[in-house]
Amino acid sequence: MNDRQERKLDDEFAAKAKAAFDQTVDSLDGATLSRLNQSRHRALEHVNAGRAASFNRQWMPAAGVAGAAAVAVAVWTFNGPPTGTASPSVATDLEIILELDDFEMLENLEFYSWVELDEQLDRA
Amino acid sequence: MSAFAGSFAVSCERERPKGVATLRREEELNRFFAEIERRALRIAEISVRNRDDALDLVQDAMIKLVRRYADKDRAEWTPLFYRILQNSVRDFQRRQSVRNRVMVWFGRGDESDYDPIAAAPDPIGRAPEEELANSEAMSELERAVSELPRRQREAFVLRTFEGLDVKDTAAAMGVSTGSVKTHYSRAVHTLRENLRGHWQ
């Protein structure tokens, strides 16, 4: 069989495969189509999120320092002012926060400081 | 102070109105995904042999495309999307392979749960014999395609099922156009050799 005949058979095979594949695509059930629809909308939620994330990165360092100061104040309020040197855990916490480039965590500082306060109250 | 810092950051994200450009881009992406999602799902399903996993992979690929490449030209989205999807499929299969080896080691076996007949599409007005023949033929094709070497499988599904030209297939696979032609040609040759009956 020469090359031209081979290519013709290859093309015929590919066309049959495409037709069979398209049939399975057209016949997807409603539940699957619904999930695809949901996936699409979930993905589209990120259209603005990407731009907001880049906007936030300009402000996060300032917000992060403000948040770190707030955590320190909250902890010192319950632990009392540092005696001499800062307690290892507070100093470690501040170092961690100030070195963070995880902006999602910086956004949740308010939550983390609430958790810390809650634990302090439980211990008291 | 922390409330201010926290709420300031959150309000930046929540309350900023969408601009016209963003809305237009969102609409374009919506149309793009609506057009491609069903074929992408079936292509992923052929590789991973599980519909739920394929749905997760398609969703991840959509999100990654939006996050990383929404600002690219529309013409680049298809090869980029499939590049992301194929990479995700490859990573998934590697994790599955490790998982299966561990399961075998623990004596739990590695039988696949994939049932091609159960995953076959719902019949729509076709005679039962015709539907069964089509399902079996497609199941046979899917099995044969899934057994191809990875690059041959990628070239075949992108060229044949998605209908990408050689240039876009090369972009999606991250290879040269010459490589695409080689992989595709070998894939078709192997499939034609291995499939019988309906496919001859």
Summarize this entry quickly.
By secondary structure, chain A is an all-alpha fold. Chain A has six helices and no strands.
Overall description:
The complex is a heterodimer of chains A (124) and B (200). Chain A is mainly alpha-helical and 124 residues long. Chain A is built from six helices and no strands. Helices cover 76% and strands 0% of the residues of chain B. The model of chain B has no long low-confidence stretch (mean pLDDT 84). Chain B is built from eight helices and no strands. At the A-B interface, helix 1, helix 2, helix 3 and helix 6 of A face helix 1, helix 2, helix 3, helix 5 and helix 6 of B.
Poorly predicted spans of chain A: none
Q: State the distance separating the first and last CA atoms of chain B.
A: 74 Å
* Number of E-state strands of chain A: 0
Oligomer: heterodimer
Main sheet specs of chain B:
none
H/I helix tally of chain A: 6
Structural class designation of chain B:
mainly alpha
Along the chain, the helix and strand elements of chain B come as HHHHHHHH
Form type of chain A: elongated
Could you state the order of secondary-structure elements of chain A as H and E?
Answer: HHHHHH
Fraction of helical residues of chain B: over 70%
Characteristic key phrases:
heterodimer, A: 124 residues, mainly alpha, 6 helices, B: 200 residues, 0% strand
List the helices and strands and how they pair.
The complex is a heterodimer of chains A (124) and B (200).
Chain A: H1 3-26, H2 30-44, H3 46-79, H4 88-99, H5 103-107, H6 109-123
Helix pairs in contact in A: 3-4, 3-6
Chain B: H1 2-15, H2 20-48, H3 51-69, H4 74-105, H5 128-146, H6 150-161, H7 166-173, H8 177-194
